[in-house]
Design a protein that fits this description.
With 180 residues, the chain is mostly beta strands. 0% of the residues lie in helices and 19% in strands. The strands form four sheets. An eight-stranded parallel β-sheet has the order 1-2-4-6-8-10-12-14, with no helix packed on it. A two-stranded parallel sheet has the order 3-5. The protein is globular.
Length: 180
């Protein structure tokens, strides 16, 4: 994708079964990836350029070959919308510090997801319903800015053995069935 592209519109590569690789240059000006842009495609890995601020709903949903998502530490990403990576095969994910919300079902049924890296200086404030449900994460750090963990956010994460909440946490609500 050329560096001057700022938006990938909805359904742009939807169900592209022969699409296995998408390359962005380091100097990419991409800012938005709209809904279902790569959903049900056969991509194997993706680099999210640092200027991307929004990944809209279902962008990588049901990408059964997607195992690697690379997000740079200096990312401008602020929102991971509904079902973005749902039912993909990703194993690791880095949640950039500017992300304030992980929407419902974002990583739902990511059965190979083991590692979720969230920095200490994260601006994350809410983890919505079933955000990580039915994944295989082993531990999770809940940043101090998080005030709400919504219903079933980590339900059916049978390998989850460590939950770290700092003493200075702003956590006010741990909703029903969060760690069921």
């Amino acid at each position: 994708i050329p560096p001057h592209v700022t938006k990938i519109c909805e359904y742009a590569f939807y169900k592209c079964k022969n699409l296995i690789k998408v390359e962005f240059q380091q100097n990419s000006n991409l800012q938005t990836i709209e809904k279902f842009a790569f959903s049900e495609s056969s991509i194997k890995e993706i680099f999210i350029p640092s200027k991307v601020s929004t990944i809209c709903k279902n962008v990588f949903c049901c990408c059964k070959n997607l195992t690697k998502v690379e997000i740079p530490k200096n990312s401008n990403l602020e929102t991971i919308e509904v079902s973005v990576f749902q039912s993909s095969e990703i194993q690791n994910i880095f949640i950039p510090s500017k992300v304030s919300k992980i929407c419902q079902y974002s990583f739902w049924y990511c059965s190979n997801l083991i590692n979720v890296e969230i920095p200490q200086n994260s601006n994350l404030q809410i983890i919505e319903e079933k955000a990580f449900s039915s994944s295989n994460i082993e531990n999770i750090f809940i940043p101090s800015q998080v005030s709400t963990i919504c219903k079933s956010a980590f339900s059916f994460c049978s390998d989850l053995t460590k939950i770290e909440i700092p003493p200075n946490s702003n956590l006010q609500i741990i909703d029903e069935r969060v760690f069921e």
